[in-house]
Amino acid sequence: SLHYDVQTLQQVSTSPTRIRISNDLSNLGAYGAIGVAGATYVIGKVTHNETARETGVLSLEAIADASLVTEVLKLATNRERPYTGTGLGRFWPDGSAIYTTNGSFPSGHATIIWAFSHVVVDETPGHRWLHLALYAAATGVSVARVTSRNHFPSDVVVGSAIGYLVGGYVYRRHSASYDSNNFNNPITVTPAYDPATRSYGMGVTIDPNALLTARLKQLWSR
User: Fold this and answer.
1) What SS3 class is residue 202?
2) According to the model, what pLDDT value does residue 219 have?
3) Across-strand partners of 188?
4) Of 56, 66, 73, 75, which shows the fewest CB atoms inside 10 Å?
């Protein structure tokens, strides 16, 4: 809710140094993900590594698709950013006469990093530490968008959910390695909404059995 968003942001430091660092980190994470996706595709193409090539292609596709959804929602909601207007994050503060793709809802940086991370995780089964590192980085970028005071918490949660869901959809639809009868992701991120408080959240579930199965498959394939 708007009240929850504003109340949470009031607890965030207004230190210029912290805001600058948070902004730099979130930009590095989101734009770095695009660069890594492109580099992975090029390396896979040059070295004839089909897994790397596909990972790069699907990562870029997921980023593009998720970003498109995000931009449409920005136009549809036209929400004020925390540093503009009254700081209350109002939707359509000036009515429907002005459209902008620079709105606050949802977060494009969060969308990008979660779309990228989900595809890479699905394309690299068995590498649980890589998966944890990717999701930790994605979480860090998401948090940094709030601590940099560029977004409200709900902007980031919804952007993260869009990226994660689109990343999974792209993998399932286009990956040559996807097996619907044999795929069990050990780490699952689930968006949540509480109607009573009108608040958003995300849950992370780690399945130990799935982690063990993925590890055994990795050892068996060696």
Assistant:
1) strand
2) 43
3) 205
4) 75
